[in-house]
Amino acid sequence: MFLFYYTVLRLLFLSSVFSSLLLGACSIHTTCLTRKDQIFSKWYLQKDSPSELSVYQICGEFSYFSGKKKFYSRFHWKQSGYDCYCVTLINPFGITEMILHVQFGLAEFIDNQGKCYSSDNPELLIEKVFGISIPLKNLQKWIWGFSGDATNIRLNSLGYVERMNYSYNGRNWIIQYNSYHKDIIPILPHSIELYQGNNRIKLNIDTWSFK
């Protein structure tokens, strides 16, 4: 009789332990899923640029590498509305290398000789005159950390974009976010790199202004 009660009590004890372990595992799994869902939800809410963020200015460093070709400059980007912006590149000697005005898809490009070019395709104009391919339309969103038309978005542990891919006109781009500004709200990109074949573009955004 003692052996019978002992066996029953042992089975009840083991059952209790197993149930506790199972519930603990479920709790851990649920916590992980919840954290993952929170990160995804955070990104999903910010993946498209809201219209109220269409007026701003950023300044920083622009670098371009293509084979043996290297180009460095300071840049100033002033956005005055949706698809309305002006980008100025100034070389290390303080000379203006280019000014690009874009307003509703119409672009005007001024080179370092003062010559003016215009087109209804800003990206093609930049490539033709300046010799650099830049996906400007999506870059307006990428500098905010939004995905735009990019795919295969990978997020970091804080829920911000870390890496993504973009394909257009037979060209495949990789967009890499190296760091974010953590001293401003909302948290915005600091260092972004764009890769396409042998071409690499790096933007270090030093300052953000919303005036």
Helix content: 25-40%
**What integer is the average pLDDT?**
81
CATH homolog superfamily: Lipoprotein localisation LolA/LolB/LppX
Secondary structure tally: strands: 11
List keywords for this structure.
211 residues, alpha+beta, outer membrane lipoprotein receptor (LolB), chain A, eleven-stranded antiparallel β-sheet, 3 helices, 11 strands, 29% helix, 44% strand, globular, disordered N terminus
Give structural notes.
The radius of gyration is 26 Å and the shape is globular. It has a single domain (51-209), classed as Lipoprotein localisation LolA/LolB/LppX (outer membrane lipoprotein receptor (LolB), chain A). It has an 11-stranded antiparallel beta sheet, covered by helices on one side. It is of the alpha+beta class and 211 residues long. The chain has 3 helices and 11 strands, in the order H-E-E-E-E-E-E-H-H-E-E-E-E-E. A hairpin with a 5-residue loop joins strand 3 and strand 4 (96-103).
Would you kindly provide a brief summary of this structure?
The protein has 3 helices and 11 strands; from the N terminus they run αββββββααβββββ. With 211 residues, it is α+β, with helices and mostly antiparallel strands. The protein has a single domain, classed as outer membrane lipoprotein receptor (LolB), chain A (Clam).
